[in-house]
Amino acid sequence: MTGDNHLDSSPSPTFGSSEVGDTNTVADRWRAIAVDRGDAVAIRTPEQSITFEQATARVDDLARAIVDITAADTPVAVEIESDVDSVIAMLAVWCAGRPLVMVDPFLPEDRRATILRQSGAHLLTPSTGHDHELRDQTTAQPAVEPGPDDPAVLLFTSGSTGTPKGVVLAQRTPVNHARDGRRFMELGPDDRAAVLLPLSFGGGLDALAMSLLNGASMLLWDVRRRTTTGLREWLAAEGATTAHCTPSLLRSWLGELGAEDAVDSLRLLSTCGEPAHRSDVLLARETILPHGVFCCWAGASEVGNLAFNLFPPDREVEAGPLLVGIPASDKVVRIVDEDGSDLPTGSTGEVVVESAHVASGYHANPELTAARFTTLPDGRRRYRTGDLGRFDENGELALLGRGDDAIKIRGYLVEPLEVEAALRSLPWTIDAVVTADREEARLTAHVAVDPEKWSPSPAEIRHELGKTLTPWMIPRDIVVVAEIPRNERGKVDRGALPPPPPRPTPERPRGLTEMALHRFWSEILGLEPESFGRHDDFVELGGDSLAAAKMLSEVQHHLQLEVNTAMLSEAPTIAQFAQQIEAAAKERSKNASGATLIRLRRGTGDPIFLVAGAGSLATSLTPIVRALSGDRPVYAIQSRGVEKRGRADHSVRAAARRAIADIRSVQPHGPYQIGGYSLGGFIAVEVAARLTKAGETCHTVAVLDSVVDPVLAQRLSGDGPKVLQRIRDSLRSLTATKETLPDRTGADEENKPGGSPLQRAVQEIALKALVLTAGLVPLSTPVQWVVFFRLGTKMIRRHRPSPYSGPITVIRARTNTDDPALWRHFTSGKVEFLDIDGDHISMIRAPHATETARAIDQIIGDGTD
Questions:
Q1: Are residues 377 and 443 in the same domain?
Q2: Is 477 helix (H, G, I), strand (E, B) or coil?
Q3: Which of 199, 451, 562, 781 matches a 20 to 30 Å C-alpha distance to 550?
Q4: Centroid of chain to Cα 861
Q5: Which residues make beta-bridge pairs with 245?
Q6: DSSP string of 802-847?
Q7: Within-domain flag for 170
Q8: Residue where a domain terminates, one of 589, 618, 653
Q9: Residue 244: which H helix or E strand, with range?
């Protein structure tokens, strides 16, 4: 390291009789290694195995066939799979002195056609070379002798920023990759390297060179076709010493494993292709790599390997994205300003790479080549990456994203990668990506969460980000998704990211009421005041049932106005809601009386009635209602006392009687369409039983993941111990979520679980007393939720279903382990089940609310059975 902010990485010593320093082309390097390794295994898949000697014979034979059918400068395209034949074809093209064009079988047809057209490549067919007699390796002569600067690969970029570009890599480039593999990963003949990267892309090409061209046996497992089922067992059986994959694959694979799944032979695990994080290192250490080295390495199509960072098992890992580390072999990495001058250590600037091993340029594109590449006086080439980075005091490189990704918000420069790191540090997050809109100066975050831990609303995510980020760094739009879409290379497919809900241009609030509401919304939803206006929708801003309860409480406390869920549902914007609460201040309307019936959607035709879960406001069902098809009116029924003072119902039958009165106030006679979520499902079935007994008709009752308590299950089935064992896991997950809700939502310390036995006993007595007086005593919102959840559990346990003969359809979350036969005790009619991906909580929130709504649509159809 010099005084300037750049680092020069020199080569390391070589090994054995086949020294990299003696060979400057991939063709020569392969032949030297193959002679040295002889009958050792070169490539192995679960179906095939081939030695270096056998591979050489096939490579030479196919190389001669390629020379026979193609001109000297004609690129040769090969469809690349993770198999023996593909590796043989790649080596043969190099040994024939032809540029290799790698075609991935998962490419869309139009992209594939574009690559073949732009490259002018001859597409190698499976029959090529079959008419040539296989020759013994000792007598076969090389087809041609390519030079170090002859093109070896036309590597087409992903095209995520435009038309795919063909990056020209010389024969010397894979040799340099082999040097990196030996220097940083100590790859050699004793290794069995599991390459889990697609060979048809840059990372897979580098891993092939680093392993096979160092004499290691290469183990190939096609993750995209095989998935990760059985992968850990295969690696253990094969005695894999190293494994190489992307961070996203690592997370999805290792997330299924535990400490008992360690692979004892594995000494190194490497990732590339996207930023790795501290959580990735910890996940590897907790599963397959308890005693090995974690290596993250970075690169690009134009520069090959850029940097490596090694984490032995005793090295501490700082939170956030990992530094990419020390520059690769024979690479000078500089951090420069806009004028190209070197910046001091610690300063952020553009990353520039100088080396004899960067790309020669872009295929058939001299203008773009001249704009990004410069030939230096000593023959090396300089490439301006367009990435931002900086060196720390230890000489390790940090990449900070594309220079054109950075965005100024309120005058501050914000890097999306920093926000991504904060999102990934949240306990629920399994994947995240942050994009910047320069024109509107705003960030959008897409967050994939683990529903087994929690299914947060955008408002909750913003609040958590606010603990570590400055306000202007918190994304205005947060979209919770089941998974982040990725392309065939495993990179984020930004074009497939679902857009956030459309927002009106922010308009400043008018009048004192709107100004107060604007302030409340900003604080509760975690939004900068400038980012939303008087016409923005509360739910589309990320507000959930809990946020609504908090906001209504704030309004009542500070403005001394009578407001409730019904008003917010009817008027979800600041402008509309302000009109509602100002009218309520002048005249107490029906809605201000704390009614349990809340209209969530206007419409025509027979209404749909949905009963909310224990302790949940009617607005908790808003995401589902908005996703329902058709235009039928929808009403939600919430527990008495959950919002306004009033003694809560203490049995399912009492709640059903109250619900029937609410329903008949809107629709005096059937046929009725009824459903319910959680506790509400039991109430809905009881409502249907009582209405049919009264001579009314009910369509199929939609039961949304109503979990049968073990006590009730024992009483219904008379098989208590077996039933308890079968469904305990389901209830344990749900109960833990509800019982710890005060801690998640900011309740006082004394409301948190834990403490001494005496404290817990006192808390339990107090909680039982609160349950007895539920609805009568004003409580903080989090405690109110827990009290009503406890009450709901008590109601289910004591429930004795009324005789019902109508149809029921149960929409089950994937975590629901109830015995389906239990529902035969609730009706003698038809019982059907629909399964969805979400868990008990996430099924009524984005993104799973849409799937739940589709299931309800399937049940209600056109309103007839």
A1: no
A2: strand
A3: 451
A4: 33
A5: 271
A6: PP--S-EEEEE-TT----GGGGGGT-SS-EEEEE-SS-TTGGGSTT
A7: yes
A8: 589
A9: strand 242-245
Name beta bridge partners: 446: 433, 479
CATH number of the CATH domain containing 251: 3.40.50.12780
Cα torsion 305, 309, 310, 314 to 10°: value is -170
Verify cis geometry, omega within 30 degrees of 0, for the bond prior to 451.
Answer: no
Domain residue limits at 565 = 505-589
Q: State the Cα–Cα distance between residues 593 and 14, nearest whole angstrom.
A: 83
Spatial neighbors of 523 by CB under 8 A, at least 6 apart, are 554
In terms of domains, do 604 and 577 share one? no
How many CA atoms lie within 13 Å of 508's alpha carbon, on the beta-carbon side?
3
Q: Examine the domain organization and report whether 342 and 471 are in the same domain.
A: no
Q: In this structure, are 304 and 375 located in the same domain?
A: yes
Residue position matching structure tokens 């295929």: 363
Rounded-to-integer distance, Cα 589 and Cα 585, Å: 9
- Verify that 702 and 764 share a domain, yes or no: yes
CATH number of the domain residue 487 falls in:
3.30.300.30
Q: What do you get for the CA distance between the two ends of the chain, in Å?
A: 77
Q: Are residues 556 and 608 in the same domain?
A: no
Q: What is the domain-level CATH number for residue 807?
A: 3.40.50.1820
Does a structural domain hold residue 442? Answer: yes
Q: Does 524 lie in the same domain as 458?
A: no
483 and 509 assigned to the same domain: no
Q: Is residue 145 part of a domain?
A: yes
Q: Report the CATH number at residue 584.
A: 1.10.1200.10
Taking residue 26's Cβ as centre, other Cβ atoms within 10 Å add up to 29
Checking if the pLDDT of 227 tops 90, the result is no
Contact 410, 470 (CB under 8 A): no
Angle CA 737–743–744, to nearest 5: 65
Of the candidates 464, 496, 528, which is a domain's last residue? 496
CA 600 to mean position of chain CA atoms: 31
What DSSP string describes 252-306? HHHTT--GGG--TT--EEEE-SS--BHHHHHHHHHTT-SSSEEEEEEEETTTEEE
Quickly state the pLDDT bin for 99 (edges 50, 70, 90): very high
**Spatial distance between the Cα atoms of 529 and 338, rounded to a whole number of angstroms:** 34
Three-state secondary structure string covering 639-701: CCCCCCCCCCCCCHHHHHHHHHHHHHHHCCCCCEEEEEECHHHHHHHHHHHHHHHCCCCECCE
Per-residue burial over 738-758, b if 16 or more Cβ lie within 10 Å, else e, is: bebbbeebebeeebeeeeeee
The predicted pLDDT at position 587 comes to 52
Is 1 within a domain?
A: no
pLDDT digits (tens, 9 = 90+) for 537-551: 887 777 776 777 778
Residue 486: phi and psi, rounded to 5, are -130, 150
Domain count, the chain: 4
Position 23 pLDDT exceeds 70 = no
Highest mean pLDDT: which range of 267-271, 327-331, 645-649 = 267-271
- Please give the helix or strand (H or E) that residue 518 lies within, else none: helix 511-525
pLDDT at site 826: 94
- DSSP labels for 603-641? -SSS-EEEE--TT--GGGGHHHHHH-SS---EEEE--TT
